[in-house]
Amino acid sequence: MIFYFYLRFAGIEPTIVIILGIIGGVWLAFRPSEWAVEGFESAAGHLGLTAYVAGMLSSLASNMPEAVISGIAAYDGYTTGNQDLLDIAVLSILIAAGFNMLLLGITIVISTKGKPDMDFPEEAIKKDAVLIRWTFVALLSMFALGVLDMASPDAPLNPRFPAVASFVLFLSYIIYAGALATGDVVEGAEKAKASHSKRTAAILAVLGFIGIFFAGEILTHSVEMLLTDYHEVIGLLGNQVAIAALILGAAGALPEHGIAVIAAAKGKVGLAVGNLIGGVLQIVLLIMGGIGMFVPIPLDRYVLFQIMVIAGSLWFLKRAITDDHKLDFFEGAMIILLQAYVFVLFIAGTPI
Fold it and tell me: Per-residue pLDDT for 132 more than 80?
């Protein structure tokens, strides 16, 4: 990392700076977030919370890189008037939610291949299904607002999502988290286990957050350099904004939430499912809502497309959960196929 910062501030060989920045940023997003996850899991164990709630808390720690990466990128784009960077920041949030759905599909496939269907935690059915419906309607409302703005005779030049509405998104998740943490524990629910002392858990969480902040700054700077120095080269592969957002969203989601896939492979299904479903809802409500309170969210064609995609994915997930309270191999495979299809459309489809 010392070599990276030397090359970066000396202005030497941008290609090497970009490569080192992406590699170093992904590592910082992965390892420190793992420390933060361990800290949160142990804290949940000390507090006597269930494994599903522990998964939700670990997801909160896992989503910190995405929040920092997107927050820094959105602020830089807004203050410098760089519309592409602002689009990339918001899109990376929604794309990270898509990657979470992809990992959820993989988790379901791993947990059900050659095994009985996965029972969905009852505590999640009681509260998650309600929040998924709320998020679905909220995203449809955002999409409708954006379409009406574009179709209006006196359409604004750069339509924005209201900051007050972003606050409502943020508040909805806070209310949900409080209800999940303080509600009655479902009989037979698996309890979280503390693997560290209270002091060690706190230290791990603090160190994790510090590393996550540096990961966000390094990855954001690397994407900015990539857009500036290799704009034409990226254009040969597809839409520049779409590809940059995909890279940023993957860097913010895959390293951390990949932990959930590992947990599922080890039989910790409650933790894995709580991490991934909690991650999707946190990204849309907590992170996008939180950033939108301070930086206006653009409602252009890029963002509207991805908003509709996430809304459809949540509807698909909600139906899979509530039809028989189980998730099976076929449903997991269809979730994977759906997200792969959407990413192909986003990058290689008709330019939006």
Answer: yes
Rounded to the nearest angstrom, the gap between the alpha carbon of residue 321 and the centroid of all alpha carbons in its chain is: 20
Residue 62's Cβ-count burial label (10 Å; 0-12, 13-18, 19+) is buried
Per residue in 181-237, pLDDT (tens digit) is 666 555 555 666 777 888 888 888 788 778 877 776 787 778 778 777 777 777 777
* Residue 320 three-state SS: helix
- Phi first, then psi, for residue 196 (nearest 5°) are -135, 160
The confidence score (pLDDT) of residue 208 equals 79
Q: Where are the alpha helices (DSSP H) in 152-239?
A: 163-182, 198-229, 231-237
d(CA 190, CA 229): 51
Q: What pLDDT band is residue 2 in, cutting at 50, 70 and 90?
A: confident
CB 276 within 8 A of CB 103: yes
**Cα angle value 23/70/201 (rounded, 5°):** 75
- Token output for 29: 């997003």
CATH number of the domain enclosing 200: 1.20.1420.30
| Residue position matching structure tokens 């359409």 | 155
How many other CB atoms are found less than 10 A from the CB of residue 79? 11
Its domain, for residue 9, covers: 2-348
Q: Which residues have C-beta within 8 Å of that of residue 153, sequence separation ≥ 6?
A: none
C-alpha span between 266 and 78 (Å, rounded)? 43
In this structure, what token pair is assigned to residue 345? Answer: 């459309």
Report the C-alpha gap between 48 and 175 in whole angstroms: 20
Number of structural domains (the chain) is 1
Tokens of 42: 């142990």
